[in-house]
Amino acid sequence: DLVMGTFSKSFASLGGFVAGPAHVIHYMRHHARSLIFSASIPPSAAAAALAALDVIESEPQLRTIIDAISDHGAQPVSDVDCGLESADLDGAFPEGFYSSTNQRTAVRVDGAWIEVANQEMDCGVVVDPAAGTARCVAMTEIRRGELVVIGHRGVRVFPLERSQQRQSFEFMNSAVSTEKPKAVAVRQIAAELRRIRDGGGKALLVGGPAIIHTGSGPHLCELIRMGFVHRLFAGNALAAHDIEQAMFGTSLGVQLASGDIIEAGHEHHLRAINRVRRAGGIRQAVDSGLIASGVMHACVEHGVDFVLAGSIRDDGPLPEVITDVLEAQRQMRAKLAGVEFCLMIATTLHSIAVGNLLPAWVRVACVDINPSTVIKLNDRGSFQTVGIVTDVEPFLSSLLRELK
Question: Which domains, ranges and CATH numbers included, belong to the chain?
């Protein structure tokens, strides 16, 4: 038990009931031989446990166990200040830096606990002792001279209880499956969107071009007009094919009204991009009347902020598309302020990218015909993600009916 760092015999002798969040117990179940138990501690048992902890503190191999479970909410028996080290160059952390989670975190500096701002997974934590602040900083954003938290000592992680999320999203109880009842999921997502709109909050939609290809663009436009979407993250493809549809009535050269393949239709999205580039950008094209309908038109008309992140395969791209991926990350982070709910629709890469930026307390619903998309999100740490396996058009049309 001491080698495994679980103390099962000591703790079980105190009463023998499981304590702690479910994911901590899950972690211990799969990474140790037995569970942690807790109860009122007799002095003799407490002394034995403290002595065992002293041994673990002095053994590097055992210390790694404590460091691993600290990210799941385990706390040391005594408080110590966090270790700080000055960054010695731009764009890289000192060796041994603390790698953040997406859970609420605090660090101890000069005897006081400071909550970490801009919570995000896979970042470092930079501390300003004079100002009494701490914040998550991406590796590319670190600057020489900034004080970086080192190791796990003096760091507290406050895991989000999954039972709290189930109060709003009961359909989280089962795994991702094509057989889950879609109506229940749609109804609860609609209730969440309505709550956020009525409460003055912000909802983010992360979308792929399938929204346009499937003829679902008008549904998204209506959601924007009704005030249920406040931010839009997408790539060049969604915007380009949305504008193609507005100008030519096609998406990828297919007539959306009839399903017919139009002669030379494969050129339409290129001609649409070219027209927008000649106009100076999407906003200018909307203002001039060149773009008279569609998702991007609705965003401009209703003040919905959008971030279009590019890739190496993009045609054009449109002028607003950010081709520097690090700059795209920066702008996405800036637009996440105030977001309470994120709806991801038919885009694996953008969904994973945004999922990496979101703190754990922002609820996420991922809609995709491919169940592996939401599985990948969960595997990468976005455990708050709800998966709905369905096609885009029936989901958005059902959501719109529920909201109306």
Answer: 8-70 (no CATH), 83-158 (2.40.420.10), 162-403 (3.40.50.10690)
